[in-house]
Design goal:
By secondary structure, the chain is α+β, with helices and mostly antiparallel strands. The protein has one domain. The protein contains one helix and four strands, in the order H-E-E-E-E. The strands form two sheets. It has a two-stranded antiparallel sheet with strand order 1-4. It is elongated and about 75 Å long.
Length: about 100
């Protein structure tokens, strides 16, 4: 009976492990023009070769100096309905002016 229980436990564990394989849906490294992203206002986000985590560039957003203003950098739509778990990882470099309140 112990052998059967052990065998069934191993089969169950292997079934769970095989279903939980990592699939990368998107990997954006900001090295090319972001034609599929929505950038608002269009002048606010620019490529920057001075600050980056890996590769040769990042994108910097210039926020207008008016109360309530913002800049948006929006990804394209990713259809993830076929996945039971989704994780988003990103690196962010935050540089602000001395006059800004954070």
């Amino acid at each position: 009976m112990k052998k059967v229980s052990l065998f069934l436990s191993v089969i169950l564990f292997m079934t769970i492990e095989l279903k939980s394989q990592i699939i990368i849906v998107e990997n954006e490294n900001f090295e090319t023009y972001l034609s599929t992203w929505t950038v608002q206002p269009t002048y606010a986000w620019m490529p920057n070769t001075n600050l980056y985590v890996s590769g040769n560039q990042s994108y910097v957003g210039f926020v207008p100096a008016l109360n309530g203003d913002s800049v948006l950098f929006t990804t394209p739509f990713y259809n993830l309905v076929n996945y039971s778990q989704v994780k988003l990882y990103f690196n962010h470099i935050c540089k602000v002016s001395n006059q800004d309140l954070c």
